[in-house]
Specification:
Number of strands: 20
Shape: globular
Oligomer: single chain
Order of helices and strands: HHHEHHEHEEEHEEHEEEHEHEEEEEEEEE
Number of domains: 2
Number of helices: 10
Structural class: alpha+beta
Radius of gyration: 22 Å
Strand content: 25-35%
């Protein structure tokens, strides 16, 4: 075997081993933090415990994510009935900054003590704890994409917030608000469901569901059109690395008799792949083909197709498209 090929194989195996070891360590972090008390006397006490138990920046960043996700619940009532914005007067820039800091400190303490918050409280608490354990952390405000109606929206809005934390000289994307659970529209309430996928999320997946107010990430411009008009992806898409290779657009301009070609990475014929028609009946995809580590299939557009097509893999929703 040529020397270069041997070196490449060795490098790939080494990268795999490092990633596997890191994943194991992260899982151990979650197990340790799950045994922490729900209540600490102060954020300082919690930060001290995390610094004592964990050595690396990555473990400490994950421990903060896990503790918040395990213990702080999304305040859906506050989301529906937001408090009035607090105004204040000031005479100097120093006084302005002091009052902004006081408001932020109040937000952090309210989330920490009441165990309830909306995204602003989650992100402020995460930043506060991260900085206490020596991590550089920022809060990013922007738009989120979570519903079928979000496909093809005309404009973005500032309705969400998340964090970026510096680990091993690389900025990592974190959304601890989404890590703690989700809103179940059928039950009409929040469901506590710890989800690790929004810690150090792949930017390709993250920005399919988030768009910062700045329109950029680490100095690079992001495409607003791709965000607004791209397909809607789901948690299992990220968890299983189901990259949607085609179509790239979430809006399908079609007529009866047309066929949409779909290609999804890391899906095979052994998976059960189907979509729901407008009567919410499952329709299994026909004649799927395995192609370069992906599954390719076609969906016939007929009178049974509704305004949206959501594709499922083994009972999990993976991607949705808008039919025009």
């Amino acid at each position: 075997m040529p020397q270069k090929k041997i070196a490449l194989i060795f490098l790939l195996l080494n990268i795999f081993a490092i990633n596997f070891t890191f994943a194991q360590k992260i899982n151990e972090v979650d197990k340790i933090v799950a045994k922490y008390p729900k209540n600490f006397d102060s954020t300082e006490k919690l930060a001290d415990r995390i610094e004592k138990d964990f050595d690396s920046d990555a473990e400490r960043a994950r421990a903060i994510y896990s503790w918040i996700a395990f213990n702080i619940r999304y305040d859906y009532n506050a989301y529906l009935n937001p408090p009035r914005v607090q105004g204040f007067s000031y005479s100097t820039e120093a006084e302005k900054q002091r009052k902004i800091k006081q408001l932020n400190d109040n937000l952090i303490q309210k989330a920490f003590n009441s165990k309830k918050a909306v995204c602003e409280g989650f992100t402020a608490l995460y930043q506060n704890l991260a900085e206490q354990v020596g991590l550089k952390c920022e809060i990013v405000k922007g738009d989120s994409k979570t519903r079928l109606a979000d496909i093809g929206r005309k404009n973005t809005s500032s309705n969400h917030a998340w964090n970026m934390v510096l680990i091993n000289k690389k900025w990592r994307l974190i959304d601890v608000t989404w890590g703690q659970g989700y809103y179940d529209s059928n039950k009409g309430r929040m469901v506590n469901d710890f989800n690790p996928i929004y810690f150090d999320t792949d930017p390709d997946y993250f920005f399919a569901k988030h768009f910062p107010d700045s329109g950029s990430f680490l100095g690079s411009r992001l495409s607003k059109d791709d965000f607004l008009n791209g397909p809607l992806i789901y948690n299992k898409t990220i968890e299983n690395d189901y990259k949607i290779k085609t179509p790239s657009s979430g809006i399908m301009e079609v007529k009866n008799g047309d066929k949409i070609t779909v290609e999804i990475k890391n899906v095979s014929k052994s998976n059960q792949v189907f979509y729901l028609n407008k009567k919410n009946q499952p329709v299994k995809v026909q004649n799927p083909k395995e192609k370069r580590g992906a599954l390719e299939f076609q969906i016939l557009i007929d009178s049974n197709v509704g305004n949206y097509i959501t594709i499922f893999v083994d009972t999990d929703s993976i991607v949705s498209f808008k039919i025009v």
